[in-house]
Amino acid sequence: MIKIGQLNTLTVVKEVDFGVFVDGGEDFGNILLPKRYVPKGTRLGDEIEVFIYFDSQDEIIATTEKPLAHVGQFAKLNCISTTPVGAFLNWGLPKDLLVPFSEQRIPLQEGRSYLVFLYMDNASGRIVGTTKFNKFLDKTPARYEKGEQVHVTIVEETDLGYKCAINDAHSGLLFKSEVFGKLFVGKSLRAYVKQMREDGKIDLSLQKLGRGKLDDLSEKVLHTLELKGGFLPVNDKSSPDEIFELFRTSKATFKKTIGSLYKERRIRIEQDGIHLTK
Q1: Per-residue pLDDT reduced to its tens digit, 49-60
Q2: Domain 149-205, CATH among 3.40.50.1010, 3.40.50.261, 3.50.50.60, 2.40.50.140
Q3: Among candidates 166, 159, 209, 161, which has minimal Cα distance to 189?
């Protein structure tokens, strides 16, 4: 079944002077892939990965260009114009993405970037964006395991920390005590489920839990030492900023890691830094 606003692998069924048609099935019939997007050497019967959306005439169309986001995803996009019907954002395709006024938490301004969620509007059948994305989160039960790796997008900064969208589907929170380095709304990164609360809320961590984060960091420290000729000018006396710049981790975790490596006699800790043991 064809998914509008998503990548689909479809079969070329007809060639014309202005492009090719791909098979959209019973629901959509043949869908045009304009000539400028047809890969060189394409023939009848070939399967092509295409993105399906509506063009400026609201006709269904295919393209091999990759948009900045698909339906069901978050993206930080630049507002290129505002009109009586809403704001238009650049999402990497010829037809810009509409964010209707009714879907704007605050009025969007031309020239600024905003985090939006893309969805199919049931009333119009169009792909649109919204900054009122909370209503699209937590619509399905969250079934994550403690320690599970997830993809998160920062959606809001709060007094407690950073509210995140987990896998574009659920809400979670990164407490400020779990954050090292600079985060901002729209940033996407890897995180781990720290706790599933009884009230359904999800706490997150940017580092693996327990021994796992130490093991990962140990390998990273040793690998970096090898690349740098067996010496790094950081130790347990270095500033948190210096440590984060090198290893994207907290000073406490770094100290535990090099302490374990020292006990295993894999490194030496000196006043000038850490040395790889030969």
Answers
A1: 999 999 888 889
A2: 2.40.50.140
A3: 166
The token pair that represents 227 in the structure block? 């690349």
CATH code reported for the domain at 7-63 = 2.40.50.140
In the chain, CATH 1.10.10.10 covers 211-276
Q: What is the pLDDT of residues 6-29, one digit of tens each?
A: 999 999 999 999 999 999 988 889
Q: In what order do the strands lie in the sheet with 60-63?
A: 30-34, 19-23, 7-16, 47-54, 60-63
CATH code, 211-276: 1.10.10.10
Quote the pTM value.
0.74
Indicate the helix (H) or strand (E) that contains 247: helix 240-247
> What are 100's two structure tokens?
């209707």
Average pLDDT, the chain: 89
User: Which tokens go with 242?
Assistant: 């210096």
pLDDT in tens, 142-178: 999 988 999 999 999 999 999 999 999 999 999 887 7
pLDDT digit string, tens, across residues 127-145: 999 999 989 999 898 999 9
Task: Give me the CATH code for the 74-135 domain, please.
Answer: 2.40.50.140
Residues with Cβ < 8 Å from 49, sequence gap 6 or more?
7, 8, 9, 64
DSSP string of 39-100? Answer: PTT--TT-EEEEEEEE-TTS-EEEESSPPS--TT-EEEEEEEEEETTEEEEE-SSSSPEEEE
Residue range(s) in the chain whose domain bears CATH number 2.40.50.140: 7-63, 74-135, 149-205
